[in-house]
Design a protein that fits this description.
Blueprint: H1 9-21, E1 32-39, H2 46-61, E2 65-72, H3 76-87, E3 96-100, H4 104-110, H5 131-135, E4 147-151, E5 154-159, H6 160-165, H7 177-190, E6 195-198, H8 207-218, E7 226-227, E8 232-234, H9 238-252, H10 259-262, H11 267-275, E9 281-287, H12 290-295, H13 306-309, E10 310-313, E11 315-316, E12 325-329, E13 331-336, H14 343-353, H15 356-365, H16 373-376, H17 379-384, H18 387-392, E14 398-400, H19 407-422, H20 428-443, E15 448-449
Parallel strand pairs: 1-2, 1-3, 6-9, 8-15, 12-14
Antiparallel strand pairs: 3-13, 4-13, 5-9, 5-10, 7-8, 11-12
Helix pairs in contact: 2-14, 2-15, 8-19, 9-20, 19-20
Length: 453
């Protein structure tokens, strides 16, 4: 807690000396406590290790100060809900929180975050971040509300042995959606005991259904969510229709997991820690973090053979149209809560958590695509995971979600619609109509434009 104090001459001299050498931040001599909140769930173990390490180093560097570690044990969407509840009250709000980039603007609008602009220029590591990484935490008001922990890309993980057994040539690089469907059909025909493909879908797996699933298809069409040239939300049209049609095909033909399995909030853990290592899943549309979070030494489910068994292919566009492949990128931040009474100490904790060694270790163990030059250029990072270079090569054709305050609401609607398609409750045409009606109700007709033909 930040308290006004009166320094003795000795203390004042010591503080002044520290400031002159650039080694000291403002001193809170009476000490206090800062609260740190993050998601602790499934394969997300690297973040917990990071928080514990940073808390220990913080306590040593700032005697009299302690860190109240507050892991929120919940899947992604319930984590957002619980974090919002904590952040809404000064009595429960964290000083430092683990924040998804796509929620920055909605959380700023809700009053959960405070800007960090005044702290960043004097932090030597800030200039090492890429321009995109710095902008990832920028609110629509121009202020910065977090520091990136790394980014990611997405593609098709595939079991080389299972595809070869099904008669699919490996290395596999599908050129169109039809090629992906054909490979899945070949697996189903050859080995009925294997699930051909995992596509995150429905409300159970939350934002993964929108980003790893739906948007990886949608951005392979000409019909995206938002048109940045016109600053308008795009209505659902031909691209949406194509996505929901292939969605129906995957689930109605038994090429994807059963709706019950896909709806499990723990499905991501089941896929990466059970189905893939056990050879029960042939293709997984998933993220760059999968091997680092799970399979490498130190991961939550070590699998020494993964690199010889698994291959990686970029996700193709619908008909192979330019640029040919598609990916989605996101990332997580460490941010300062709006109710923090010791924001300088909160930022000092973030600096410790994201110093070179701690961030290097985290990015390796969490399978992150490094977006800071001192990490991406570190030989330990490049040598730790053979998949890193492949997923980094997806950056030139990747997309980012429209991180506006209305996006989380639209994402929830997408999850609902994909779940209804998955279970056969609605037709693709009905899904298109439902989204357009909801879109207009959320953003207003004047803020939309017709879908491209």
């Amino acid at each position: 807690m930040h308290r006004k104090i009166i320094m003795s001459g000795v203390a004042l001299a010591a503080t002044t000396a520290g400031l002159l050498t650039g080694l000291s931040q403002p001193v809170y001599a009476s000490g206090g406590t800062i609260k740190v909140a993050w998601e602790q769930y499934g394969a997300n173990v690297a973040i917990t290790t990071l928080m514990k390490t940073a808390a220990s180093e913080f306590a040593k560097q700032y005697p009299g100060w302690t860190v109240n570690l507050n892991p929120i044990v919940a899947p992604e969407n319930p984590y957002y809900t619980k974090l919002d509840l904590e952040s809404s009250s000064a009595s429960t709000a964290p000083d430092v929180l683990y924040e998804d980039t796509f929620l920055v603007n909605s959380d700023v609008a809700a009053g959960y975050l405070q800007p960090m602009d005044k702290y960043l220029p004097s932090w030597s590591q800030w200039k090492l971040y890429s321009a995109a990484a710095q902008a990832a935490a920028k609110g629509s008001n121009g202020h910065i509300y977090g520091v990136s922990m790394g980014t990611d890309t997405r593609g098709l993980w595939y079991n080389k042995q299972l595809l070869s057994k099904a008669g699919v040539t490996v290395p596999w690089k599908p050129k169109t959606w039809a090629n992906v469907v054909a490979a899945a059909q070949a697996v189903k025909s050859k080995d009925p005991g294997v699930t051909p493909i995992n596509i995150y879908s429905g409300t159970g797996t939350g934002e993964a259904s929108t980003m790893q699933g739906f948007e990886m298809f949608l951005y392979g069409t000409n019909n995206w969510l938002y048109d940045f040239k016109t600053d308008k939300w795009e209505m659902a049209g031909a691209g949406w229709q194509s996505v929901l049609t292939i969605w129906k095909q995957f689930f109605s033909q038994g090429l994807a997991e059963t709706p019950q399995a896909a709806s499990n909030p723990n499905n991501g853990t089941v896929v990466t820690q059970e189905l893939l290592p056990q050879g029960k899943l042939a293709i997984d549309l998933d993220g760059s973090w999968v091997s680092g979070s799970n399979w490498i030494k130190g991961g939550s489910a070590p699998w020494p053979q993964w690199n010889s068994v698994m291959g990686i292919a970029p996700m193709p566009t619908e008909n192979g149209q330019g640029p040919g492949d598609v990916s989605m990128s996101g990332g997580w931040l460490l941010s300062i809560g709006s109710h923090s009474k010791a924001p300088q100490m909160a930022f000092d904790f973030i600096k410790i958590a994201l110093d070179h060694q701690n961030l290097l270790t985290y990015d390796i163990n969490a399978g992150q695509t490094a977006d800071r030059s001192d990490i991406s250029g570190d030989s330990a990072y490049t040598a730790a995971n053979p998949s890193s270079a492949i997923f980094s090569s997806f950056v030139p054709f990747t997309h980012f979600r429209p991180a506006f305050a209305n996006y989380p609401k639209l994402s929830d609607e997408i999850q609902l619609i994909t779940g209804q398609i998955m279970t056969g409750q609605i037709t693709p045409a009905a899904g298109v109509a439902a989204y357009n009606k909801y879109l207009v109700s959320v953003v207003g007709k004047s803020n939309t434009e017709p879908a491209p033909m």
